[in-house]
Amino acid sequence: MQEGKAVIEDTDMPLKILAQALASASRALDLYEVFDCIAFAAYIKKDFDKMHGPGWQCVDSVVGTNFSCFFNHFKGTFIYFALETLNFLIFKGISSNSTSS
């Protein structure tokens, strides 16, 4: 497992799910090359879909690159954090017609 410590920028996840997000990202770092962002995101999305049902989304980027997003999510399913040289955004999406956090 990677030795780097995660820096959580923002979250509304319960601690148990938050720990699973960090563990999933750490496993992805062990399995894939650092610049294989698609593989990272796919691994984490599939991991969370298995653990918590379908609808999870994952966005990652290499530190130093920029991205912006706007989304609706179920309350208690959002986290944005940095681990090693990557930033991760994980959330369970909902339609814009539903109530969100």
From TrEMBL:
Gene3D superfamilies, A to Z: Protein Inhibitor Of Neuronal Nitric Oxide Synthase
Q: Which family does it belong to?
A: Belongs to the dynein light chain family.
- Where, per UniProt, does this protein localize? Cytoplasm, Cytoskeleton
The protein, known as:
Dynein light chain
Gene Ontology cellular-component terms listed: cytoplasmic dynein complex; microtubule
Q: Which PANTHER family match?
A: DYNEIN LIGHT CHAIN
Signal peptide bounds:
none
Q: Name one GO biological process term.
A: microtubule-based process
- By its UniProt entry, which InterPro entries does this protein fall under? DLC_sf, Dynein_light_chain_typ-1/2
> What is the source species?
Durio zibethinus (Durian)
Source domain of life is Eukaryota
UniProt keywords (A-Z) are: Cytoplasm, Cytoskeleton, Dynein, Microtubule, Motor protein
